[in-house]
Design a protein that fits this description.
Blueprint: E1 3-9, H1 15-33, E2 41-47, E3 53-54, E4 57-58, H2 59-71
Parallel strand pairs: 1-2
Antiparallel strand pairs: 3-4
Length: 73
């Protein structure tokens, strides 16, 4: 009984995109590991960018700085 947890930032991931993720991961596990889709669980967590860090800072801060740098280029 596979359990897959996908974490993405909460920036407009659509219902259709989530459905594609669920179907794609389920199909991958079925094809590669011969797992039964009926017992494959996929959980998608949407995380606020203030709660997601990379290189010692929140993604929100990193993206704001990146956007400002691009605006001045």
């Amino acid at each position: 009984m596979p359990y897959v947890n996908i974490k993405v930032t909460d920036e407009g991931v659509t219902r259709e995109q989530k459905q594609q993720l669920i179907e794609g991961v389920t199909d991958l596990l079925s094809r590669v590991l011969n797992k039964n889709p009926a017992s494959t669980f996929v959980l998608i967590d949407e995380v606020n960018t203030d709660n997601w860090g990379v290189n010692r800072e929140a993604v929100t801060t990193w993206r704001q700085r990146d956007a400002a740098a691009k605006a001045t280029s």
